[in-house]
Each structure stands twice: as C-alpha cells, then as structure tokens.
Design brief:
Length: 265
C-alpha cells in the first residue's frame, strides 16, 4: 500500500506557467516555487537579460526547465511573442501569473497628470486582460488551468499617495472577478491582495527611508512585514490542484491586517 502524501496536490508536474515581472522580488519567488513544485516556467520581464539570468539560476537551483524572455506587457507584439515562445518551448500554457505592476508615490494626488493615470491602468490593469486573451486558447486546452494575479492591499484601502497605482489595482480586482465569472467551469481566476513586502522597489517608488522603516515594522496581527516567499506560497496553493475548488476570490496575504483600535485595550 502506498503511503498517503498530503502534499501531492501542491505538486505542479505537467504544468506550464508564464510569470510576468518574474525576474526579481515576488515574481522571482513565485517562479522558483512553481519550478520547485515541478512546473515548467517562462519568466517574462521587461528586463530580458535579467529574465534569462534569473531563469538560468532557477533552473540550476530546482533542476527544472525555467526560461526567460524580454516582454513589455503593454506591447501587444511582445505579449504574442511571449506566449508563442512558451508554447513552442513547453507545448502549451496552463498557468498564467499576472504579477507585473508598478507605481510611485505622489505628494498631492490632484497634481497628477491624467496621462500618468492612463499609463498606470495600461500597466497594472489592461496588461492582465491582454495576457489573458493571448493565453486563452492554451488555457482552455489545459488541465486545471488557472490565472492568479498580484493585487495589492492599496487596491481595497484608501491610498491617496499612490492614487494611479491603487486605482488601477482596484480596477484589476473587479476586472478579474468579471473574467472569473466569464470563464466559469473552464479557467479558475483569483487575485492575491499583497501587503507590505519590502523590496528594492519601495525606494524606486519614491518612499523615503523613514517611511520604509515604518513599513518594515507594521502594526499588523503578525507583527512583521512579508517576504516574497510568503506571497509565493499563496500563489502555489491557488495555482496547483490544492486550490482547484477556489475561483473568483481575492485573498489577502498581508500579515493579518491592522491591530489599530479606536477603543483602548
């Protein structure tokens, strides 16, 4: 009699994943975790050289086939080339992770150029729809196909200092919920609302050292900021067979929310 393996459903053998923005930080952790679980992975990143270098390192670390490709997810030709190269290399696509996203801080939200708002929607919202459309025929032909998106807690909480980014992420939440209903019984779609995960991107977004220090010690239920691996573990659950009964959900992976109380303890 074979011994029961409680982790078998978390395996991703036979799965083919595209991970946008996968060359570093959270995307890299997702790619490493998926490959370690048995998936074949294509890292799609604006920085093509870095995507290829990360893929090479993850292949060596996991013993799995991980590849990298330069891809601007706001460019339709790049998206089509990414999907075509993935299908050519691996025979299909069963798992799409819309991880790419970026935003910066603004002192006064009413001084924001409307073009900045539109650019943010193009990167943080519309790119997910375009990637989904390009992958659709391959997802529909796959076993346990899924789309999992990197959302943000600022997409559900007020964040006037990150207005373009937070508004675009809020739109993505609603858009992907609509697509989950459209793909019902065919493709599972979920979004992870990510809390504070300190990466070099925070400095790039314009947050000063004092703000980063406050974010590193949040007043949440776990008492700490998150790590890329904390987030990657949630992606593994939702993309693998372990999450096969989960769709149309926004899952908070954010340290348990705030401990701030209006009434003193």
């Amino acid at each position: 009699m074979s011994q029961f393996d409680p982790f078998a459903d978390f395996r991703m053998d036979g799965q083919v994943a595209i991970i946008t923005g996968g060359a570093q930080n959270i995307g890299e952790a997702i790619a490493k975790t998926f490959a370690g679980a048995g998936a074949k992975v294509m890292i799609a990143d604006l920085q093509g050289d870095k995507a290829e270098a990360t893929a090479k390192a993850l292949s060596e670390a996991t013993g799995r086939d991980v590849r990298g490709i330069g891809c601007d997810v706001t460019n339709e030709a790049d998206i089509q080339r990414c999907v075509a190269e993935t299908v050519k290399a691996f025979g299909g696509v069963s798992t799409l992770v819309n991880n790419v996203g970026w935003g910066r801080a603004y002192a006064d939200p009413l001084d924001i150029d409307p073009q900045e708002m539109l650019k943010s929607y193009e990167l943080n919202t519309i790119s997910g729809m375009r990637m989904t459309a390009a992958c659709r025929p391959h997802l529909l032909a796959a076993k346990n196909p899924s789309i999992t998106n990197s959302g943000s807690m600022v997409g559900v909480l007020p964040a006037f200092d990150f207005l373009p980014y937070s508004a675009a992420k809020a739109a993505m939440n609603h858009m992907m919920l609509g697509l989950a209903h459209y793909f019902a019984k065919k493709v599972r779609i979920n979004t992870i609302l990510i809390g504070t995960v300190l990466t070099p991107g925070y400095a790039d977004a314009g947050l000063d050292a004092a703000t980063q220090e406050r974010l590193a010690n949040p007043n949440n239920l776990t008492g700490r900021a998150g790590s890329p691996q904390d987030v990657a573990n949630a992606f593994l659950w939702l993309a693998s067979n372990a999450g096969s009964w989960v769709s149309g959900q926004t899952l908070q992976v954010a340290g348990g929310g705030t401990r701030v109380r209006l009434i003193p303890d």
